[in-house]
Every structure is written in C-alpha cells, then in structure tokens.
Amino acid sequence: MRTTIFNILLSQIAKKMRKIFTGLLLTIATLNYSSANTPPALGYWHSELSINDSTSIPFTLITEKKPNNELCIKVKNASEIICLKALEPKNDTLVYAFQDFNSKLYITKDGKDALKGYWQNLQRSEDYILPFNASYIGKTLESSDASITSIEGKWKTVFNYTSTTPYPALGVFNHMAGSANVAGTFLTETGDYRFLDGVSTEGKVQLSCFDGTHAFLFEADLVADTLWGTFYSGNHWKTKWYAVKDNSFQLADPDSLTYVRKSLDTFDFTFKDLEGNDFTYSQSNLEGKVVLIQIMGTWCPNCLDETKYYKELQEKYKDQGLEIIAVCYEASKSFEAQTKSVQRLINNYELDYTFLIGGNASKTLASEQFYFLNEIISFPTSIYINKKGEIVKVHTGFNGPGTGQVYLDYKKETEALIEQLLAD
C-alpha cells in the first residue's frame, strides 16, 4: 500500500517536473528567437572578413534606421560610405546586397553585441565565401589613441617585387586628426586601390578596403625608412611589397601608356547595344561632335568611379556637343547576363549616355577590337576624339576620389580639354 502511494506521488512529481522543464525550454527558445530577430544595435561595428586561420580583413559596418523604421546597413571605407540593399531574410539571417556588384553579406546576431555570417562574392563564383564577424563599437567612432608611427606623405612603392613582373605604385597617406588612424591609397599605372583606411602604430601598418567586389588588406612593418609588407586580395591572391618615402616620385603619365599605332585617315568599330542591335561608330555619323569612348566593365570599381564622373561630364557638356560611348567588357559569359549587369549600372545611377557590349572581360579581346591602339592594358581606358574625328588623347586607368588632390587635378585637366575641343 505504502509502495503504491509512493509510486503515485513520484509519478505526479515527475509530471510536474516535465511541465517545468518543458516550460523552461520554451522560455529559452523564445528568448533566443527574440534575441535573434531583434535588429542589431544601431551604430558602428568593428567587422572582419577571415581569409585564413590567422589573417582577417577589417572594415567598419554601420547600422542605422531608415525613416520607415527599416534597418539600413552601410560599409565605411575611409570617407566612402556604401549603402547595401536589404533582401528577403533567411530565417534569423539578414541578407544584404552590394548594389553595384554581384555579392551579398549574410548577417546573424551572435549575442547582444556581436554579429556573424559570411560574404559571398558571386562575381567570382557561388563558392567564393569569406566568414564574417563583428563586434559593437558604439554610437560614435573614436580615433585610435595608440602611439603613432607616422607614414604621412608619398611613398615610392613596388608590388610583386619577388617575381618577374614587379609593378610600381605611389602610396599617398594622411593621418587623421593627429591620431594613429590613417587614410589614403596606392595609385598604380592602371588605377588606384581606392579608399583605404587603418592604423599605423608601433612600427606596424595595416590598411584595408571592402567595397563588395574587392576585399583588400595591406600589412607592413616599418624597418628603418622602408615599409616591408604583404598585400592580400581576399583569400585567393597575395604578394609582397615595399615602399620608401619619396615626395617627388611620380608614375608614368597615364596619357602616354596607350596610343594610336599609326596615323589613321579613318577608323570605325561595331558593337551590339543592349537590345542586340548593331551600333557602328564612324567619324561621319558623329560629325561635329566631341566623342569620349569609355572602355570599361561593370565589375571594376575604378570603372564605377569613372562612370560617376562621366555622368557629371555628360550633364555638363551634352548640350554643347559632347557624346560619351561606353564599351563594356563583362565578367559574365552570356550576352543576356552582360546586358543585365550593364542595365543595373544604368538604373542605379540614372545614366543616359550610350552603352555597348564589347564581350567578355578580356584586355586581349579589347586590344583586338580597338585595333588602332597599341594595346589595352587597363579597364578603364578612355579615348578622346575631336570634332574632326581625330584621336587627341588616350587615358589609361583611372585614379578616382580616393586619391584626393590627384583626382581633383585630373578633373580640372579633363574639363579644360573638353571645353577646348568643344570650342574648336
């Protein structure tokens, strides 16, 4: 009898314990769900893309609220702010797209003040994925108070110096508000490495940039008067570099690298427009126009910087007789995919000049098609043609707004040339 009563009591206790345990699990699950689906804290996040077990590419993520109360995600590279486009979430994962390039950032909350996820660069392949993590900084972004190793000024740089194909560059750096924080870039003869920022302290330099198509990291040690370092591009490429301070160093003139093979009485070319119709350039059908031909690709950040500037030129000089024609060489293989990428660029920036499809992203192909030039060595390359149909200048590469005064000087020279050609 006592045993029976004891068994009944034990059974009742077990039922109550199961209810308590089940309720506890539901509570924990609810809290976890609530935490996972609560938007991240607003402000600045120290973020990293992992490229191997010991190396990560740092960048700054910004979380803001839009007027409609939706979460806005931005990436900050020095003075450049890139707004990402929100896509449909996947369960507790936020998905954001880089609007100018075919890549996505997947973000999941990892506790109160941490995020995790990955970056997928579809321009390279569906399998190109770098792990992402971030820790919350706060509502404001503070300058580094670490001891300063000054790299202010211009640096004569050589990349890939251990190989048979070294190439020169010019490093231009500025310390921010007297702190260890550094902003600047490297100019090369085919374009700049855009907006870099980082720190220079205790004899070590770290600069990085993440724009949706490139994830760059430049690390170096300052030994005596020389920077010795490694340049990483994602997890697929790296090379050695060194630099010495030299405020007088200059790269080759970008107007001298690409040139007309020989004197031509006439030249023309034919490419497809975005509807698949043939567009043939010849001097006769653009008689009396100043023509600027832009050889570019939508996958190329330097080309994007140039395109933003060419939009300014189009708006300023179109009514005076400037005609801009872009010939696009795309990472996608099919004509349909190529036109889709170009149309996305046109829509994003409300461009109204002519866009044509050159083919795949190949400098060899571009050189064959622009047979009257010695060689296409860079996307972008621009050809300036006067009202008589004569080529007056070919500009190789593009050093954009990340280069500071170099960019401002280029704009001044370019607009002076266009105004002269329009006046002739």
UniProtKB/TrEMBL annotation:
GO molecular function: oxidoreductase activity
One protein family per Pfam: Redoxin
Domain of life where this protein originates: Bacteria
Record's protein name: Redoxin
Domain annotation Thioredoxin: ranges: 260-423
Signal peptide: none
CDD domains according to UniProt: TlpA_like_family (cd02966)
Coiled coil: none
PROSITE patterns according to UniProt: THIOREDOXIN_2
